[in-house]
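COURSE: Structural Biology Practicum
ASSIGNMENT: Worksheet 4, Part C
STUDENT ID: 0417
INSTRUCTIONS: Below are two proteins. For each, the amino acid sequence is given first, followed by its structure token string. Answer the questions at the end about the second protein only.

PROTEIN I
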Amino acid sequence: MNNKVFKPLIVSSLVLCNYVSAADCYDVSQNIAKQLEDNYVIENTATRLAQLIRSQVFLSGCERQKSSEDIAEFMTLELNKIANDKHLSVVYDPNWVSELKDYRSSAQTEAFADSRVMETPIDNYGFKKVELLDGNIGYLDIRAFSDSHLGGETLENAMKFLQHADGIIIDLRNNYGGSPFMVTSLASYFFDLDTVHLSTFESRENGVLTQTQDWTSPYVPGPRFKDTPLYILTSSNSASAAEGFSYSMQSLNRATIVGEVTAGAAHGRSTEIVNNDYILTLPSTRPVNPRTNDNWERKGVKPNIETSSDNAFYVAYAEVLNSLIKSNSKNLGLHQWVYPLVKAKSSQYQPSQSDFNQIVGTFGERKIFQKSGKLFYQYSNDPAFEIELLDKKTIVFKAFTEARLQAIYKNKQVIALKMLSLGEDERVFQRTM
């Protein structure tokens, strides 16, 4: 093709692209500025955001973008240089706009609620696992906070299952948020009949600020755990309502947070139509803690005990057992039995071949040997049991937990094995070979 013919086509295409971007930028900016001004939850920030998005500098930068998707990304980045708000974004998605318009123009609200009732049981309303761990420690894994009127009965059943636990661990490492009403329902189980102010929620609509307070309930269906040690596991992915529960319980000194600093997403958002192509996710509500006069937006919830999310479970498990031992708990012997094992696992010890070589040997009628990279313990001619090194001294049986071994060292050499059994006297076997 002749280059002289082709060049004007390229120029025309670029001009058209810039023209469309300029039109989009002005239209979208004006609509977003008004919505931010009227409804963004922090009024002084709303004013600054509206001034920015109406400025010529902002519009000029917007008009240099090459596509509608780029415009949305540019606006989101620029707005968050001021707001630094994880819930504030501009999205280019004509299909989403169309679907949202259809939904809002029809009487689908009740049908939508009914569909949620049908769908959420697939995920058990966010309750992934409830378990009683060795040492009589309760464990509850919650992946989402469903609305209380949907998941309340599941919560009640989980708490009844844990009613005799000596301590409780709530795992929110994979929880991205959900309903603040479920947060209140869950928190209520960990206080007595006197209600506790958890948070105040602020919302702005048409320039008017409204405040509502969240308090624990004087009634819960099932047992209360007002004196039960409570530990909450977090990760950098724990967000929104998961952070709200953690932040409130920590500020009340009712729970110990173990894990990673959370995502830092405190604000509640609405979905607003900008025009036929763009959506604004608009933070219009925020929690304010009555004790800190703040929340976790942008900062996240800082754990009391900071560790990797992968190791948070064993660190918290060891801590709750240790706290029960220090308080001379009613099941002291059980907690003392389980604690060394859990503490060893929390160290994330990786045994080496040198460690294996130290353990392998004969101890009277007992022997430890290695086969196919694994360690085994055998008494006389009985069947051999596979064992595992949790650290240099602690040896556990993979098949059962009622007994374990402890290596006794002298001058960095294993000279004996100590057999420990729950409720029985310890026995020591000297190395013979």
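PROTEIN II
(use this one for the questions)
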Amino acid sequence: MPETIDGAALLDEIEAFHRRFNIFPLEAAYVAVALWDAHAHLLDSFDATPRIAFLSPEPGSGKSRALDVIETLVPNSMAAVDASQSALFRSVAGVDGERPTILFDEIDTIFGPKAAGDENLRKFLNAGHTRGRKMYRCVGDGANQSVEGFPAYCAVALAGLGSLPDTVFTRSVIIRMRKKAPNEKCEPWRERIHRKQGHALRDRLATWANSVREQVTGAWPTMPDGVSDRPADVWEPLLSVAEAAGGDWPERARAACLELVAAAKENDASSLGIRLLTDLRDQVFRGEERMPTAAILECLLRMDDAPWGDMDGKPITSRMLSQMLGQYVTAANKPIKPRGIRVGSATPKGYYAEDLADAWARYCPPHSQKSATSATSATPQVSGGESVAATATAIRHTPADTATHPTLTG
């Protein structure tokens, strides 16, 4: 009779194996990684496979060690730190007849700020997130070529410094690694010993996965409140695995989902636009109808713990502000652009709250309840020596019918 494996107990063992060698920043990370290991054995049961990404600001934070442990637990592991594009395409079609689980260390050498970037690899990672997607390439010699579709769907674990391209980031479970504190200890990894232990767990995980494959394939787990769209795509396979395992794993998985989705949003480079919109609403406009660009920039640059003073090495400029806001639209579905504002006898360029209102409603979190003093304590200056408060007062007392509204071009 085939061995009956308790899925919950097995996931407990997988989690304990990681805890021996990995110091993760959040308890939720251990839950997510154990579920990710298991999901790699069930890929064709899901419509998508989340990437798992171990990121840190500095070397020596345990990212590579996390991949070492994962490598022993997933099916057909393939270290791809130096793999070529064509090798990746062909490997997913079947290395030795089997689809690999790709482990990509030092991903910052591809996507980091000092790297040239690799658009084909980004496309491969994005396409491979969804089952059935292919990458199309011309194959053959000279004029005798044909178009061939290479399957891209496979599980991928990433590790590197910094962040990831937005489209890869949003398809990933993000684990923010950090250096061990003096009081944090874990076992040293011994390849010859611990690889065998990991493989023993991997083989049992494969057996269990086969026993629940039909159950998982037809599962549609209920997502936690507030998790939808791309985050739901990322977490649905992991929650399906947790439900199949049973025990306390469904509850732990949903709690981990909420925690890690929220943590990713706080650190997501793609959310910088949302941070800008929120800061404009809560810290700059604060009920004003319009505000000159110079006043906006001065206010943003005086904000504590804000990113606006260092945008790729330089402070935010009017051009950057225009480019960022131009990605959003007004209620009339027109890009948000600076317009002329009447302030006394001058007409500086600036922005209108009515143009921003639709984006505020769609993208920003509920209105901040912070004291207005956090925005006014520094009293930033605008061109000509006027403070933001003085400029706002001047705008407030400018009759609406004297304000000019020309639309800028460029």
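ANSWER KEY EXCERPT:
Q1: The longest strand covers residues 134-141.
Q2: Confidence is low (pLDDT under 50) at residues 369-387, 399-410.
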